[in-house]
């Protein structure tokens, strides 16, 4: 009798564990494309689908800037808001769900999200942001005449001005290092452009491409031995690992320059690049034109309007950078 009770107990425990595992698996699959916000507003002016490729500080701010700008313009919006969590397999399934939700417009944040939306959505206007090369990414026919149903805001910034400012602080820099995602068009274009600019300035570029985020710690450790400073691109995967990158650089007493401010907030030294909150607000202003009747195919792609010089105070002190230096007099200091 005791043996039977033990056997029954064991079977029940096993069944419970199996049910629990199945439940967790289902939840994990569901969370791969998590719905951050699904605001239900009675009599809303519009329904907008927001698709963010992954959760990282710059893309988060592009989302917040968009939503806040809509509110500033007194436009009531019901949002269907999803993150693809960096899962390429979701870049077409998520926009398909947006279509089934009968949204009036899709706001796609980052190149993979925008590409996925364009591939499957043909009759709903798409506004993108955080895309460096919309033509090369196949999103538009040209900057001036996008064609089809897609336009947006490019975050391309000529790196030369930022590099020149950086060299005033670190004039002995002979080699920059760069990490980039080998599968992101956005990053490949930036690396090519950066190398051209540095060649003209007689500065070498050491490049390491990484296929996934798990390779970044080893890659930045290797790169730190080959360069005098790091140039950080607007690369989604690498930006997501900015705290790890920053920590390794500081261990090697290496300064860093970022093409966008989000990575400075996460530990890199300085940037005079994209303010993604303002970038998202600019995308909202473009979206408003479309929602009020302008044809998206006739609206040229816009370039980022607002760049802000920022310096990470903690990193600057660790590198013995004088925050009172004339070069940094107009910089915003991030505590």
Automatic annotation (TrEMBL):
Keyword terms: Signal
Keyword Cell wall biogenesis/degradation in record: no
Signal peptide: 1-26
Alphabetical list of InterPro entries matching this protein: ABC_transpt-TYRBP-like, Peripla_BP_I
The keyword Metal-binding is annotated on this UniProt entry: no
Name of this chain's protein: ABC transport system substrate-binding protein
């Amino acid at each position: 009798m005791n043996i039977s009770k033990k056997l029954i107990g064991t079977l029940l425990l096993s069944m419970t564990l199996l049910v629990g595992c199945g439940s967790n698996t289902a939840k994990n699959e569901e969370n791969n494309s998590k719905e951050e916000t699904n605001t239900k507003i009675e009599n809303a002016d519009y329904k907008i689908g927001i698709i963010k490729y992954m959760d990282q500080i710059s893309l988060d701010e592009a989302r917040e800037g968009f939503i806040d700008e809509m509110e500033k313009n007194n436009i009531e919006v019901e949002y269907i808001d999803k993150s693809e969590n960096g899962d390429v397999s979701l870049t077409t399934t998520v926009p398909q769900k947006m279509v089934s939700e009968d949204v009036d417009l899709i706001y796609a944040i980052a190149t993979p999200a925008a590409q996925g939306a364009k591939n499957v959505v043909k009759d709903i206007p798409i506004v993108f942001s955080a895309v460096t090369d919309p033509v090369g990414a196949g999103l538009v026919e040209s900057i001036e005449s996008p064609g089809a149903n897609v336009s947006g805001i490019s975050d391309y910034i000529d790196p030369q001005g930022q590099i020149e400012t950086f060299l005033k602080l670190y004039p002995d820099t002979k080699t920059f290092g760069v990490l980039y995602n080998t599968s992101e068009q956005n990053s490949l274009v930036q690396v090519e452009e950066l190398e051209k600019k540095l060649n003209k300035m007689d500065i070498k570029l050491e490049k390491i491409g990484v296929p996934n985020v798990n390779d970044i710690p080893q890659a930045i450790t290797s790169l730190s031995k080959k360069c005098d400073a790091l140039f950080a691109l607007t690369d989604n995967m690498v930006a997501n690992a900015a705290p790890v990158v920053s920590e390794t650089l500081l261990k090697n007493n290496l300064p860093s320059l970022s093409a966008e401010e989000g990575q400075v907030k996460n530990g890199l030294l300085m940037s005079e690049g994209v303010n993604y909150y303002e970038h998202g607000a600019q995308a909202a202003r473009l979206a408003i034109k479309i929602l009020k009747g302008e044809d998206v195919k006739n609206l040229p792609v816009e370039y980022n309007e607002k760049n802000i010089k920022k310096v990470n105070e903690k990193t600057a002190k660790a590198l013995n950078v004088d925050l009172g230096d004339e070069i940094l007099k107009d910089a915003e200091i991030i505590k």
